Amino acid sequence: MHPELAADLGRLPEILEETRQHALAFLAGLDERPVVERAGPPAVAPLTEEGGGTRAALAEFAERWEPRLSASAGPRYFGFVTGGATPAALAGDWLTSAVDQNSNSSLDPAGQQLERETVGWLGELFGLSAAHRGTFVSGATMSNTVGLAIAREWLGERLGVDVAEDGVGALGPVRVLSGSAHSSVAKALSVLGLGRTALRTVPVMPGREAVDVAALERALAEAPGPCVVVANAGTVNTVDFDDLRAIAALRERYGFWLHVDAAFGAFAALSPEHAELVAGLDLADSVCVDLHKWLNVPYDSAVQFTRRPDLQARVFQNAAAYLGPLSEHPDLVHLTPENSHRLRALAAWFTLRAYGRAGHREIVERCVAGARALGAEVARIDGLELLAPVRLNVVCFSLTADPTPERLAALAAELADEAFLTPTRYAGRPALRAAFSNWRTTGADVRRTAEALDRAVRKLTA
């Protein structure tokens, strides 16, 4: 054994304790460190021959890289719909690395058994029936990709061809209809060989991002064959929701696969005030939910659900004797693109077990209250205007005068020490959005952000 490896093994308890103290110091400083550090990267260091052991690596990390890391785990990181990691999720994630499971095969079954229990809990949380089966994946993009891959196989089934065996060329042109599809949908269509041009945008309702169901029906009536509908349960800019029950009702007259992108909107099911927004989610053929958003587990973690695990296994089955047979209840290795599948479910299992439905409902409702409060502050600040109602947990706004991307970028940069917001474009207008999903965010953080916004706007417009 290399001498540094042997030495680190001998002092492993001390190393883990030092790492624990370092992690605690980082977390304790989240509230005061710049939310996004604007310093450039350090000079590239050469790879050493002997290394120096974990303590040397920890010291160099603390000196060169840690000061440049964002406070994305903290309460005022409002970009990208990014959650943090609850204490239980953090404990589960540390243990995930310690136990180091590849939870894909029934030949070594405990990992995938734990994952299936966790997926069952999540399904209950989102109001999905036992007809839906689910699997952990790396994020919403992969969840959408898996769901649309199953949809692709369903199209083949309807047309009497086997896409998994013969390729997408056997399908002919494919039509995917959506009102406000997330960018990951087009990316998934590219990856799956269906092509970005397969995505056809259907008109939305006036002043909304939700699809016009009558316009969707007209598009379905004009479609030359079976198609895919991607519905939204929470759009990126304004957290708008399609009428899932009305869309599902159209399936009785038109043959289509209903995929619902509920990356963070699915969590509306936890709040009695907002659960109606996701009524009908269980009617979907496939569902995407991102967990490193509102479940507040560490990156990377998401789940996909489908009513057709048989088609899913047809797409992703892996014919290798060492992985075990493809049974009636396929191992996870046969259900996603990943042959290697870390035990992502453990962090989710921990936070669900630790805080239950009520704890996660409180996180959702506190985030919604925070978004409403910030929206009210934005409406009050001279020089800013809300571009849409605060429907759930995102505040979308812009400058009232000369709202160019450059001026909005300057506004966001001025805020970087106090809060992180990301740019967008809504109804053709450059904008900023603040997404609330971190379990640490409180009313004090809203007030601090609003005060920083007020100062930044005054400086920009002086």
Series of H and E elements: HHHHHEHHEHEHEHEEEHHEEHEEH
Number of strands: 11
Biggest sheet descriptor: 7 strands, mixed
Secondary-structure content class: alpha/beta
CATH architectural name of the largest domain: 3-Layer(aba) Sandwich
Question: What is the residue-averaged pLDDT?
Answer: 96
CATH topology of the largest domain: the name is Aspartate Aminotransferase, domain 2
| CATH class identity of the largest domain | Alpha Beta
Q: Strand order of the main beta sheet, please?
A: 1-7-6-5-4-2-3
The whole-angstrom Rg is 24 Å
**Envelope shape:** globular
Percent helix range: 40-55%
What is the terminal separation in angstroms? 65 Å
In CATH, the homologous superfamily of the largest domain goes by the name: Type I PLP-dependent aspartate aminotransferase-like (Major domain)
Count up the domains: 2
Q: Enumerate how many helices there are, as a single number.
A: 14
Unreliable segments (pLDDT under 50, ≥5 consecutive)?
Answer: none
**Proportion of residues in β-strands:** 5-15%
If you had to describe this structure to a student in words, what would you say it looks like?
The chain has 14 helices and eleven strands. By secondary structure, the chain is α/β, with parallel strands linked by helices. The protein has two domains: 3-71; 90-350, Aspartate Aminotransferase, domain 2, CATH 3.40.640.10. Strands 1-7-6-5-4-2-3 form a seven-stranded mixed beta sheet, with helices on both faces. A four-stranded antiparallel beta sheet has the order 8-9-11-10. β10 and β11 (429-435) form a beta hairpin. α5 runs parallel beside α12.
